[in-house]
Amino acid sequence: MRAHGPPSRHVPQPVEDRRLRDLHASTRTNMASPTSEYVTLVSCDGFEFIIPRSAACVSGTIRRMLDPSSKFSEAITGRCTLETLTGIVLEKVCEYLLYNEKHKDQANVSDMDIPPELCLELLMAADYLDT
Amino acid sequence: MDNEVPLPPPRRLRHRSPARANQSAPVSVASSFRKSRRLSRFDDRSSQPSSDPALFSSDDIPASGLENYNAPAPGAGGRKRRYRGTWWGEQVQDPKRKRADFKEKRNVDSGVWMGSDESGAESLLTSEDSPAWGEDLLKTVLDPRAPGRAPTDLPFSRGSVPIPASPRQIVVNGNEESEEHRFARKVVNDCLEKGEESIDLGNFNMRTIPIDMLQSLQHLTKLPSLREPPISENAYFSLRPFLRIYLPNNSLATLPRELFELKDLRVLSLRNNKLTSIPCTIRDLSALQVLNLSVNRLSHLPWELLVLLQKGELKHFTPRPNPFLSIEDADIAEWHCKSGESQHEKNDGNYDDDDHKDDDKGNEKLPQTQATFTEYEGTPPDDAWTAIHVATGPTTLYNMDGKPIGNTPSSRLAKTQQTAPTNAPSLRELSLRALWKLPGLDFIAEEEKLEFPSLVIPLLSLAQGVRADGGWYCSVCQREFVSRRAEWMEWWDCTPHENGMKRPRASGEKMRPLPFKRYGCSWACVPDSQRVD
After folding, report:
1. pTM tops 0.90
2. Quick one: pLDDT at residue B212?
3. CATH placement of domain A7-129
């Protein structure tokens, strides 16, 4: 299903969030605290995406993983390893999580752009992440 | 490749001298092939094969031989021409066949039987031949024109295996069309040719409309009938066709999406069919003036039709008789109009319920199955001409998997608190929206779907359904959607448009509301009064 584009396509970049970029260095040290503002999502091929906790909690699965009362290791470290998602898919998923958080209260939301080759994989990911 | 002239009848289908053949045989394998070689049964040209034609590959590359059969054939791009049909190849087989087609047909008996060179007249299959005869069939790929030449292509190598075309595929290709479809197509083509705007396809007993039949009507051009220059300007008229399609007395259960792409369609009659629902894409027929849906199996109408009645050109609308859900039997969450005098003021608020929310609350309990129009004297008021919103049914909310969630307010509240109603679509919904627009979706066959992960299969079917209807649109926010999240019924009285005449309601006339079904794309797209905040 996935198109084989130029190799650069296959290197997902961390989600572009300006606040995030500024805070990147400082938050990394605080990551261990369970109430940190940012969480890390790790794909099966080792890509890490650091996104706001509120955005990550749009997904039901991640919300339950990070629930402090659950005492899961994810909740303690603030680091979720998603074994079923590759970096390319997880990049799009993170884009969606931020898109959903941004447009939560808006009346007329334009659709997010989804490349056709990722459609089916995102369907699977959406089922897994309950979003 | 397609345009190449098929092989001429081989010059020598006669008996070949074995000596000559042996003489030119370079390899022993080839000669062993030849021994088992049989004379074609089609020597007698009058005998037609009873089964589907077999496939043969050409052997027109001079440098080919057994010693280099693995090497790519020079000049031919590594591919050989293939012929289907009689032994001497009358039809060139369409090379664009899907890989999937080959898989299931590779081992199928073609039914074409080859006689043997040696056996001549007694070319009947003997029992000891029977296990090997299938191989013989394959070996006849040998070029008949070059007796000494070894096969250039292994029988089992990809792409050159004789594959009989199964009858199922012919149907898929549309080569064999049912008689009524052929007649209907002829009528459509005649109309196209003559510039006739009225297409009468009644009484054809069609169950479906072939996909590409109506598409060409988009390009129907009216012919000017003037022979001489007109005297006055009144003689000029618009060449925009006044397209009329009549499909009464068929057995249609579904309508093709092409029908709703005809922007010039003015008159559409679907009387006496077997339709159970009308797709919401009917809203695209903005020029529609007359619509006849009588004598079908409709239990409700699409809400988009109401838009045509209110804002479009639709004047003559014949929805009855149909087994519509009756307002007496249905659950009503909210009444929008009262009987008697006080109703007149209320009608103004039909389009925005918010203004009259408080009034509605007071009336909710009243059993108002006998709504009547306001009484008036003299000239009819404006709203005597328009559709009137009579009632709204309860809303069914669906979760992300498309399963309805409990309808009691408490369970709904619990559910919505967990995930607040949001306008942002879910990731699954977004992917599905992207998916149904993919052009390849139409070509995913049922058996191919089994190869997909099991949780995707129902979603794929859903996307195919949306594609078949040409898209679904949320009736609140007008965006397209795939999985519905809310669904409710609205009752509207359309009597001024019904029965072929546009006339105002009579004073105090009894309302005969019709059910219109509305879909919402998210939990935020529900009737105003039922929104959970």
Report:
1. no
2. 79
3. 3.30.710.10
